[in-house]
Each structure stands twice: as structure tokens, then as C-alpha cells.
Amino acid sequence: MMSSDWLPGGGATPPLEKWPQAEARAMGQAAKLFKTLHRTRQQVFKNDARALEAARIKINEEFKCNKTETSPKKIEELIKIGSDVELILRTSVIQGIHTDHNTLKLVPRKDLLIENVPYCDAPTQKQ
Fold first, then answer.
1. Helix, strand or coil for residue 105?
2. Residue 94 in contact with residue 108, Cβ under 8 Å?
């Protein structure tokens, strides 16, 4: 394919030298975010085939829906949303396994277990 055969609104992707620098950087950020989201998905939903598949489909759908976006401002906004989602998944989601009728066993990842401030039974009064 010749380098002039691509279409701005879709079709084949042009060589990177044809893209303005900001667009090339945004494409690189989006590709990195895509990989990071999938790695996070694999860690967060480890051993849960249904959740792994649902998250995979959702990530792929969101990127596919927005792959023709050309506005740098909108692309930047979408990358920020994706980064925020990755952070929330990595820091806030804990797996739960049904063990009984009304019982869940929580399985936190090691990176979620942080040192907590010790509880004080006899707090001092502020002056």
C-alpha cells in the first residue's frame, strides 16, 4: 500500500511521519493505556473467567467506538477517563467468592493490603 492511500476518517493507518506530532503522541498514549487496562484486568479479575471476559469485551468496545476520534481535546479527555478507570480498578476492586448462601470470602490482592494507622483506644483531647 502506498503511503497516500489512507483516509483521515478511517481506513488504513498512515505512517507515523504523516501524523502531526501531537496526534502521534496521543496514539502512543492510547496504545499504552489499552495494554495497561488489559494487564490490570488480568490482575484484578484473576481466576474469574466471567469477569475477565466481560472486562475484555468492555475495554475493546470502548476503544473500538472511539478509534475514529480526531479531536485532540476529546482524545486527551478519553485517555484521562481510561487512566482513571485503570486506577480505580487497581486500587479499589476486591474479588469476592461465594462460600455459603449468604457469605462472601474477600480475596484482596497484596498490593491492596497497606499498612494502616494503628487504632488508639484512649484518644487525647485537643486543646
1. strand
2. yes
